[in-house]
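Give me the fold.
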Amino acid sequence: MRGLNKLHVGLALSILLFLALGCWLVKPKLPDQPPYLSFSADIDGTKAWKELLSTKQKAVKEWRLSWKNLPNGEKMLLVATQPFGVTKADREQLLDWVRKGNDVVLFDRNPEGWEPWGTVLTGEIGTGSTEKRMRDNTKDSTEESTEESTKESTKDSTKDSTKDSTEESSKESASVSMIEVSPDYTRAEGLLTGRVDTPYRIKPGGNGRVLFEDEHGVLASRIEEGSGSITVVLTPNWMQNGTIDQESHFELIWPLFAKSWDAVWVDETHHGFGTKPGLLAVYPAWLVLASVQLGLALLLWLWLRGKRFGPVYTPRAWTVRRGDEGVHAVAAWYERLGYQHEALAHQQLFLRQLLHQRWGLSPSASALQAAEAARGRMSEAQAAQLARLLEEPPASGGSAGPRAAKQRGVSSGAFVQRTREMGEMIAYLEKE
């Protein structure tokens, strides 16, 4: 028993040691997902905002199809956070959807191509120094690469250094700004601040209503389009999990979603997670659901009815009832032993039972009584044949002997003829 316990303890320790070494040597890493994803819990995702919005709205779902496939109807909202790859056709289709009575909230540092808005590049909030640093870094890296490599490698190194310097400078330029909001936008009291990491501002004037701005220009504006509205916000970084609770970011963006919509769609198509509609996308969801339910009900009904899809095989016993091997074997024994009279007696007994079942005629009725009952149901010839079959079989005029005695006066020809007539009569009565 002690040896068994030591074995168990050793096995358990070995398993624990194996798991510990595995976790230490192979540390699982979370996938590095792109920023602004509504299902990402990274610091640059927007899952925190989406989860909170789900508790306030009726339905909050991801949208992974093209904007031309946006659902028909009204009182819906589409939220697009820093989308990329938006084409002119996408913008036109989205504007048509908004005119039907829907709303759009667009978070974009530089919303290019949107006709109702225009952006200007400010030279403040560290933007001028940022551009200068970018030009200096690009120039230095270009000169170094030119001395050591070809023209193509020079372009590649210039591009890489420009990208790195852009990221570093954008982080440095995200300074805290004083935010001024319109009186009817939010009820938040006190001083509102936010980290603005974009050098762009919305052009003043036009039909847009200013929601909030800083000392350098407008950061959020809303314009009415048909029965709906489009809101553009230049600070998508305020939506991220790592920054939404900093400064006054939450107080500034949450009033954008104070309205109640029938459905809120979060765009993931322009984050690289778009899907193409399937074959059933052209049909409404209620029709597809009803068709599936009807199909399942039909399958269950067919199963209940026992319907078979395939060839129907007729049981062999239905087609060879009188040609069955057992019947042939018994007939061979009767013929070998000369029991023709007994065989005819069995056939006559079966015929009387059949007359009793079909007509209610007593099994002990005479041949004349059977003929009288048959005249109302069959022809005179058939009635006479029935009476003859119920009588005793005719005697044979052959010589007396052991085999003739066994046959008891029934010749082979008479036996075959009488058996054929008996079979025809039985078949006729069974079909009645």
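The two ends are 85 Å apart (CA to CA).
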